[in-house]
Amino acid sequence: MKDNPYQPWLATIDDIREEVGGVRPIKTFRLTFQDKNIQKNFTYLPGQCTMISLLGQGECFFAISSSPTKKDYIEVSVMKLGKVTTALHECEPGDVVGVRGPYGNNFDVDGWQGKNLVFIGGGIGQAPLRSLINYVVDNRKKYGKLDVIYGARSSKDLSYKQEFAELEKRKDVDVHLSIDVAEDGWKKFVDFVPNNLLKVKPSPKNSIAITCGPPIMIKFVIQNLEKLGFTDDQIFTTLEMRMKCGIGKCGRCNIGNLYVCKDGPVFSYQQLKNIQGER
Amino acid sequence: MEKFVLPKDKLTAFINEISKKYKVFAPVENKDVISFKQIKKPSEINLGFSNSKVPPKELMFGQTETLFKFTPGTKGKIDPAEIPDKKTVIFGIRPCDAKSYAILDHVFKDEYEDPYYLTKRNNTVLVGLSCTQPAVNCFCTSLDDSPASAKHVDILLTDIGDNYFVEVNSDKGKQLTKTMKTLLKPATEGDGKKKKTVEKKAAETITRAQKTDGIVDKLDDIFENSFWKNIAMRCLGCGTCTYLCPTCHCFDIQDETTLTKGARIRVWDNCMHAEYTLQASGYNPRPERTNRVRNRVYHKYNYYPKNYDIIACVGCGRCIDNCPVDIDIIDVVTSAGEVKA
Ligand SMILES: Cc1cc2nc3c(=O)[nH]c(=O)nc-3n(C[C@H](O)[C@H](O)[C@H](O)COP(=O)(O)OP(=O)(O)OC[C@H]3O[C@@H](n4cnc5c(N)ncnc54)[C@H](O)[C@@H]3O)c2cc1C
Ligand code: SF4
Ligand code: SF4
Ligand code: FES
Q1: Could you give the angle at the alpha carbon of A136 between the alpha carbons of A130 and A140, nearest 5°?
Q2: How much distance in Å is there from the Cα of B124 to the middle of ligand 2?
Q3: Does domain A116-238 sit in CATH 3.40.50.80?
Q4: Residue A128: which of A194, A81, A61, A196 has the closest Cα?
Q5: Residue of B244, B313, B330 best suited for mutating to test ligand 2, as the one with most atoms within 8 Å of CB
Q6: What letter would DSSP give residue B79?
Q7: In which band, very low, low, confident or very high, does the pLDDT at A1 lie, cut at 50, 70 and 90?
Q8: Does the ipTM exceed 0.95?
Q9: B317 touches chain A (CB under 8 A)
Q10: Under CATH, which architecture does the A9-103 domain have?
């Protein structure tokens, strides 16, 4: 029999960065496996997830927010919500967590080579997109034009500020940040993310659009992508359901006959239209 | 398939012989409730039952199971899992409950192998007992099975009068009966005919029938139909139907701790409760009872067939017998098939 899929490997928190403060804070945790071999063999692709646990508190499922091109560590970005995420936010560098995975499917980074990519993110949904964007940028020559559209309620609520500042300096990536309500000193776009998309107006020709974020944002982003001429099979998103096992056994995360933990979380809009089930 | 007969007065010797090498679980009566328990001596066994109230699912997939132990906290350490691997026999399991294991195998083997279930499954020999008197709500015959089917057991015993007719259906079964040649006599053609007669009679006593022809496609067409709301109106959401179902496999994972010790355990869970899908943000994709009642039926009659090509119901009737408001899976599925889409 293969390895016990329920038993996590131990990893040390090397670094914690506060992305966003306030009532719904987000922190990014950099983790390295205690066992060097596990670190080497933990290979994943953007979009895949991991189950992180605090021994005694429980487990949570997160998108891996680092890019697989970084091989010495993995990162997850965690929004503080309930029991385990709150306990995670109280951790300090040097603390030990359990890690299992990687789980789920991934963005089709091979199939999308040569295409223009449009990333549209909001809130904690930027976590899987960050992995994808950094992967694509690290393999820049393999892809066409890149548009990164990302927004938050206020400038304080934007994650990965340092990384966006670096990205904005590059000539081969177009970054379009926005906030929902005007602020002193903010010179970029003000309004909701779906409207920023209409303003940026990416061409659907030879393009793929990937959107992750709050369900309401995704709904309007998809409507607007369709207005711009994107077809269902050019639009990709990730889904969320409550999870426990992460490996298609506990039954919890089903949408119709599919399990988000193992058949997802990445779905094309074409697939979504054909899945019958609550989500 | 090897076929023998076992004289009824040799049954005790047969079980004693098994007990020498295997841990034996068998139907035992406690305060009028029959369930499968580990036995020390054959006299504890009660074979005068149509089926156990609680299915033997628990013997492969425990109601609570320790996944592993650990030292709690942020400097913690994990102890490797201890998975019981003792050779076990389940004696007297009914053909439908044996089939439930074959159904659960799909989930627990799929992609990631579940070591807790599979270790027990691989170390367990099923010595089944044919039903001669099916209960009022039994309907295995609607689901491609029979009250005397040897398909999903290693050995099947059928009461044919003075003897049990013994069918040995697998290598595990052969291994178990190898040392019993003094107890078992080769079956004659007449014995085989007697078994067929018993099987036919038992099948004829089953009066209830479910119509499952084309059910997968039909359910695809009536997902949004008010039919589900009407059924859900009665449901109390108690979850009895899922806990007692031999094919329900949902579980929760929880950490239990004292100051210095901890265990990650899994416990049966239940899709009929609202908390089941409640997300940390407060959003719930299945907030209404209608969503959940429908999910239970679809899981068995639409999702499972789509994923594994088999209906995840064995027709044991337990959810019907025990539902406090008489929601009846036979009627639900049969009438779903008649809904105008
Ligand atoms: C595919 C996927 C990717 C995700 N990626 C991220 C991410 O990158 N960053 C992030 O901050 N959050 C992410 N989440 C959500 C995150 O899993 C939940 O916020 C987290 O599990 C809440 O746990 P809790 O113990 O704090 O909350 P509680 O409300 O105390 O939840 C108890 C338990 O229920 C389960 N649970 C509750 N809500 C969810 C949920 N929405 N999704 C999955 N399991 C849940 C968990 O096992 C959790 O421990 C993702 C969820 C999914 C399904
Ligand atoms: S759904 Fe009901 S009849 Fe079918 S296997 Fe489960 S408990 Fe038995
Ligand atoms: S046993 Fe009956 S009342 Fe209880 S959850 Fe099941 S269908 Fe509803
Ligand atoms: S989380 Fe258990 S089946 Fe998906």
Answers
A1: 140
A2: 23
A3: yes
A4: A61
A5: B313
A6: P
A7: very low
A8: no
A9: no
A10: Beta Barrel (2.40)
